[in-house]
Amino acid sequence: MSTFNFLHEISIAGIRDYLITHRVDQGDTIVLNASDYMHVLQEAKNASDEVPDLPLKLFGVLIISDNTDSVPTGKVQIVKNETI
């Protein structure tokens, strides 16, 4: 069963802090609400003159947009990498 966790700030810095605090492993995936994902993607574009690398990754954790409209705004879903 998936759980949704509140993220204090939907930004690159907020995601970075969340990854560190909650010890999200490299290879796992963070799923964001589509509007939150667009906000983070725009922040990444504005932070550099270059187009950000896609797929978007932070500390080896994939950040993707929810295409099912199940992740509420301001929350994240963690998908654990179960590959051994």
Describe what you observe in this structure.
- The protein is of the alpha+beta class and 84 residues long.
- The protein has a single domain (4-79), classed as hypothetical protein PF0899 fold, CATH 3.30.2320.
- The protein is built from two helices and five strands.
- Strand 3 and strand 4 (61-65) form a beta hairpin.
- The mean pLDDT is 87.
Low-confidence runs of at least 5 consecutive residues: none
Mean pLDDT: 87
Shape: globular
Strand content: 15-25%
CATH architecture heading = 2-Layer Sandwich
The whole-angstrom Rg is 12 Å
Number of helical segments with 4 or more residues: 2
Taking the alpha carbons of the first and last residues, their distance comes to: 20 Å
Q: Write down the CATH topology.
A: hypothetical protein PF0899 fold
The percent of residues in helical segments reads 25-40%
Classification by helices and strands = alpha+beta
Strand order of the largest sheet: 1-5-2-4-3
Order of helices and strands: EHEHEEE
Quantity of strands, as a count: 5
Q: Biggest sheet, open or closed, and with what strands and sense?
A: 5 strands, mixed
Determine and state the CATH class: Alpha Beta
Number of domains: 1
Topology:
Elements lengths: L3 E3 L5 H10 L7 E4 L1 H13 L9 E3 L2 E5 L9 E5 L5
Parallel strand pairs: 2-4
Antiparallel strand pairs: 1-5, 2-5, 3-4
